[in-house]
Design goal:
Helix 2 packs parallel to helix 3. The protein has a five-stranded parallel β-sheet with strand order 2-1-3-4-5, sandwiched between helices. By secondary structure, the chain is an alpha/beta fold. It has one domain: Rossmann fold. Helices cover about 40% and strands about 20% of the residues. The relative contact order is 0.17. Helix 1 links the parallel strand 1 and strand 2.
Length: about 130
């Protein structure tokens, strides 16, 4: 089963996403902030990382920057999922606007797992 690392400080969203991803056939690990997520990524080597942007401590964008800089983690596909308007600028990163549509999130995760890369940012950011 693929392992997804969820990173969000909203515990309700973590629960909702965890349940949905488990129904998709994934194992899920979660962290409420970037530092813990970085430690978990190093320990678990997830197949995909789904992160929020605005969190206490290390932001999701800083987490992605640090993941890209680490040779052990740089090839893990990353989905940046936020209500903020931002665009990840690195290969292997996709921005997905939080819209309340769980089906769009699951589609993006499934495609990222199937191809080793989430769908293009242009495709994912339409809300």
């Amino acid at each position: 089963m693929p392992l997804i690392l969820l990173v969000d400080d909203d515990s309700t969203l973590l629960e909702i996403y965890t349940e949905a991803l488990e129904q998709l056939g994934c194992d899920v690990a979660s962290a409420p902030e970037g530092e813990m997520a970085l430690s978990l990524a190093l320990a678990l080597k997830p197949d995909l990382i789904l992160t929020d942007v605005m969190m206490p401590g290390m932001s999701g964008l800083e987490l992605c920057r640090r993941l890209r800089a680490d040779e052990r983690l740089c090839r893990i596909p990353r989905i940046v999922h936020s209500s903020m308007e931002c665009r990840p600028s690195a290969p292997g990163e996709v921005f997905l606007r939080k819209s309340g549509e769980l089906s769009e999130l699951l589609r993006c995760v499934a495609q990222g797992l199937a191809h080793g890369d989430p769908p293009s940012a242009e495709m994912s950011s339409a809300a």
